[in-house]
Amino acid sequence: MKAIIQDLDYQQITALAAETGQPTFRAKQLFEGLTQGKDISQISTLPAAFKAELLNRFEDSAIKILKVFTGADGTKKFLFELADGNIIEGVLMSYKYGNTQCVSTQAGCRMGCKFCASTLGGLIRNLTPGEILSQILKVNALCGGTKEKRAVTNIVLMGSGEPFDNYANVVAFLKRLTSDEGLNISPRNISLSTCGLVDKMYDFANEGIPLNLTVSLHATTDEERARTMPVANKWKISQILQACDNYFKVTGRRFIFEYSLIDGENSDARHAEELIKLLKGRPCHVNLIRLNEVKERTLKAAGEKNAYRFLGILQKGGISATLRRQIGADIGGACGQLRASYLKEEEGKDPSANGG
Ligand code: SAH
User: Fold this and answer.
1) Active-site option among 53, 81, 89, 347
2) 205-225 in b/e burial notation, b at 16+ Cβ within 10 A?
3) Ligand 1 pocket residue status of 166, Cβ below 6 Å
4) What per-residue confidence (pLDDT) applies to 354?
5) 101-124: average pLDDT
6) 11-59: per-residue pLDDT in tens?
7) What sign does the dihedral 233-238-239-240 (CA atoms) show?
8) How far apart (Å, rounded) are the C-alpha atoms in residues 255 and 215?
9) Chain-wide mean pLDDT for the chain?
């Protein structure tokens, strides 16, 4: 694989143009074209010789949209192909206030959560800042957005991968995303979800990117958490809560907990009461969601009635909480499900046949 030109920021693009004997306005044209989600070959303002030179060194396209699935509720799911042929996925959800895109930070994941489809094949590789950014540039362009009038208004780092397991690239991506020369998206419109890598949570508080920090909790004791989340063997819930308190202290941003309701595992009234004890008085919000059942996994979703009861107990106990609807369930809404089924489908195909 050649280098990814989207990994370069404006300053580096300027240096690149200078190095190849191009005037500064060419750097601007190149950077603008890339920000519009174009491949190098599609930037019509650039002279052919300059493009040919670039294509010697860089991939034409960091990422291609392979397939788009549109759900009954308007949710769009995307399958992307990276330049080395790896497949990742993303989602675009439409709300009254705008469109939220869910991006992936790794191909695969090594966290091993028992309910998640993204981790089934382990970690394949980290995505570069340009590959993460390109997911947004491509989807924004596909939906008719520009840099000034974005079709993608909000970003969540909740696709496949553990963002803090690819820390440096994710921070570089976030700096690009929030900068004037990038897409200028406010950190307030960005959420990052982590399974709770505590050391990185402390580091991130000091990066000067006060986004919405979300932690996947999914249990109320370390023992129970370890049953579905191996990371619980490394970091305790008490350490996670301390890191969250620190995040609030440094950034002034309240934090969010993801809690997927799993039948017979974490969704009894007792768990709701324990959650109240853990979180009471903390500047946080709880996002409940009924587990999206994953074919390859045996865990079952808590029933709807049960989920509302759980929500009611939390709210009565003074905890800010909402029950999210299962978005795009008809198009493989859960993490990594779409990619997993795509790869399986491809596996069954004759590789010499043109799958299309
Ligand atoms: N690695 C990060 C972000 C990716 S997952 C993290 O762990 O937070 C985004 C969210 O979806 C996480 O809260 C994750 O625990 C949750 N999730 C994964 N698979 C799920 C499923 N099958 N049903 C419901 N939530 C799921």
Assistant:
1) 89
2) bebebbbbbbbbbbbbebebb
3) no
4) 33
5) 94
6) 999 999 999 999 999 999 999 999 999 999 999 999 999 999 999 999 9
7) positive
8) 8
9) 92
CA of 162 to the centre of ligand 1 (A): 9
Q: What gap in Å lies between CA 128 and CA 49, rounded to an integer?
A: 27
* Residue identifier of the C-alpha nearest atom 22 of ligand 1: 292
Note whether 147 and 37 are within 8 A (CB). no
Q: How confident is the model at residue 324 (pLDDT cuts 50, 70, 90)?
A: confident
Q: Which residues neighbour 82 within 8 Å (Cβ) at sequence distance 6 or greater? A: 62, 63, 88, 107, 127, 131
Please give the sequence-ordered ranges of beta strands (E in DSSP) within 264-340, or none if there are none.
284-290, 321-324
Say whether 181 is catalytic: no
**Is residue 183 lining ligand 1, measured as CB closer than 6 Å?**
no
In order of their start, the domains of the chain are: 5-57 (1.10.150.530)
89 is catalytic: yes
Q: How far is the CA of 115 from the centre of ligand 1 (A)?
A: 8
| CA-297 nearest atom, ligand 1 | 22
Q: State if pTM tops 0.85.
A: yes
